[in-house]
Amino acid sequence: MCTQDDIPRVMKALTDHLEGTSESYQCENRLLKKDGTWRWNLDLGRIVKRDESGKPLRMVGSDTDISGLKEAEFALRASEQHLAHAQEMASLGSWELDVKENSLKWSDEVYRIFGRDKKQFKGNYEAFLETVHPEDRDWVHEANMKSTHEKKPYDITHRIVLPDGSIKTVQEKSKTYFDKEGNPVRVEGTVLDITEKKEAEEKLKKSHQQLRDLSNKLQSIREEDKKRISREIHDELGQTLTAIKLDMTWLEKRIDVSEPPVQDKIKSIYSHIENSLETVRRVSTELRPQVLDVMGFCEAFQW
Questions:
Q1: Within the chain, where are the H helices?
Q2: Are the C-beta atoms of residues 157 and 194 closer than 8 Å to each other?
Q3: What's the pLDDT band for 76 if we cut at 50, 70, 90?
Q4: Is residue 291's pLDDT more than 60?
Q5: What are the pLDDT digits (tens) for 178-197?
Q6: Are the CB atoms for 67 and 42 separated by under 8 Å?
Q7: CB within 8 A of 292, min separation 6: which ones?
Q8: Which of 237, 244, 219, 240 is nearest to 284 (CA)?
Q9: Are 105 and 95 in contact (CB under 8 A)?
Q10: 195-232 and 260-287 helices cross at what angle (nearest 10)?
Q11: How far is CA 139 from CA 63, 187, 257, 275, in A?
Q12: Which pLDDT does position 2 carry in this prediction?
């Protein structure tokens, strides 16, 4: 006995054939068995005799147990669903190109990544190239041709343009299969959406550049400070010490320095002044060598 859920479908298929809408009767349905379980059945039938008015008089048919086939079909569908879910979670799609027929098949995830409608996508190589960013299109095509010519897998990253004008970055890998004569017959590949990764890399690169710019700015400020301090030490403090030395010379000529203690003290003062001037020159040079401003970095570095 056919299950209640399948009766409407069975009756429609049978009515369509009896009324001449379909050439034959064919319907899959479930049959309840005596033990309460059910099996899948394929009914096939055909009217072989009608009366003068076209009314069916005789119909022959057969039924086949297709439970095993349906189980395999359900398992295949479940596997395809699991694969589709896995691809969606990983943002990874798969595709296959029949080179001779120029027929391109995309998985559901590829359609999602490219933002394309299955019903509107032409499903060929040229249609794929149209989705590639105009600035990347030529070299992407060259990469495909080179991969086929050299019989090597390829791994490239390029941009695509979605119907709404937004841009994504994808990574594509593929492998080409050849016949006995060495002609390409099929290309299988994957597409990975790496837009977020690429944006993160660009932000990180921009951040690093900002840090480098900031570091250069700080270094420039430090160099300017060193230059200013060096100039102040050299010009102001150096000039002050030189003036003290000149004043000492003036005093030396106008006082009695014949006594040994006075001569020793004057020599000591001159010594302190000379040491201080030497210290001023050394500190000033260490802070900012004058040769750096006069001759440039390379000559200053050699010096």
A1: 7-18, 67-90, 108-114, 125-131, 134-150, 195-232, 238-254, 260-287, 290-295, 297-302
A2: yes
A3: low
A4: no
A5: 999 989 999 999 999 999 88
A6: no
A7: 300
A8: 237
A9: yes
A10: 160
A11: 57, 18, 92, 71
A12: 66
